[in-house]
Design goal:
The chain has 304 residues and is α/β, with parallel strands linked by helices. The chain has 12 helices and 6 strands. Helix 2 packs across helix 3 and helix 10 packs antiparallel against helix 12.
Length: 304
């Protein structure tokens, strides 16, 4: 996890390993620069001054949330006492790899800047644990359901903007089809499966899709039933992302109406990890999910 002084950071292409590789490189490079700074007892404020930036810029760099300028990295290496030329070359190679374009840039016209970081992290993750109380997770949405959700949040968008946003959301789902696809473990509040987003036919199609996805070895889906009463995460939805490199910290992501909150402090991440662990225990077992989904479909058929 990040050191105790780090703060919260609110901030038609195929998706492939190149994109996720660049994201991982940014995270690795940021973690490496942070370790070098801490080993010398240098504050982020001091480091920011050297690169003609701010403390918050150093924080964003160390979190892997921004692109890296070679000049800035060279100046930081000098400040941190790195004289070995081979190490210089290795780090600058990481800079070039970290600055490779992200897959979502083709959709930049309809993508909120604060969500761009999450898309990068999602592509780099090996495990995504999520709890949802309002909507089906974006990675599991059908096109029709996604369009209905998009229209709720972007009422002023015309058909072209809605179409672009829907294509972006469908493109995100390709991450689950990669050979090195992350594992997705989701707990859905029962209300998610009964709220008729887009109308009954759209909801039916979405539930049928979830029923099919239950067979995926990469997806584990659980339902938190109404009769469970209070539970471990009554405060709202969140996701925890884990990466395939032990030096990279887990990240908690909480989405609000107009921004996203990213948490990386160990004590905060540990609280959310404990909460989702309790949710996994309190929710219905994964092998019960198909039965629950079929039951909801049967109830829908029985209603006029």
């Amino acid at each position: 996890m990040s050191d105790s002084g780090d703060e919260h950071d609110n901030t038609g292409n195929d998706i492939g390993s190149h994109s996720s590789g660049a994201t991982v490189r940014r995270l690795q490079l940021g973690a490496h620069l942070r370790a070098l700074r801490q080993s010398k007892g240098i504050s982020r404020e001091q480091a920011g001054y050297v690169i003609r930036g701010s403390e918050s810029k150093i924080s964003r760099m160390e979190l892997g949330r921004v692109s890296f300028k070679e000049r800035d990295v060279v100046d930081l290496l000098k400040l941190y006492g790195v004289d070995d030329q081979a190490e210089h070359r290795r780090v600058l190679t990481m800079v070039r790899e970290a600055n490779a374009p992200s897959w979502w840039q083709a959709y930049g016209d309809v993508l909120d800047t604060w969500f761009q970081n999450y898309l990068d992290l999602e592509q780099a993750a090996e495990l995504i644990r999520t709890y949802e109380i309002q909507f089906v997770p974006g990675l599991l949405q059908t096109d029709a359901y996604a369009r209905a959700v998009i229209k709720l949040g972007h009422e002023d968008d015309g058909p072209e903007e809605v179409d672009r946003r829907a294509k972006l959301r469908m493109a995100r789902k390709q991450v689950l089809e990669r050979p090195e696809a992350p594992r997705l473990w989701a707990v859905l509040d029962e209300a998610v499966l009964r709220r008729p987003i887009g109308g009954r036919d759209v909801l039916r199609g979405q539930i049928e899709y979830l029923l099919g996805i239950c067979d995926s070895p990469r997806v584990r889906l659980q339902v938190m039933p109404f009769d469970s009463g209070g539970h471990a995460a009554a405060g709202g939805a969140f996701s925890i992302l884990r990466f395939p490199h032990e030096k990279l910290p887990d990240v908690v992501y909480i989405e609000h109406l107009t921004n996203g909150l990213y948490l990386e402090r160990r004590e905060e991440v540990d609280q959310y990890a404990a909460a989702i662990g309790r949710l996994f225990i309190e929710a219905e077992r994964p092998n019960r999910t198909p039965e629950i989904l079929r039951g909801i479909l049967a109830e829908m058929d029985a209603r006029p």
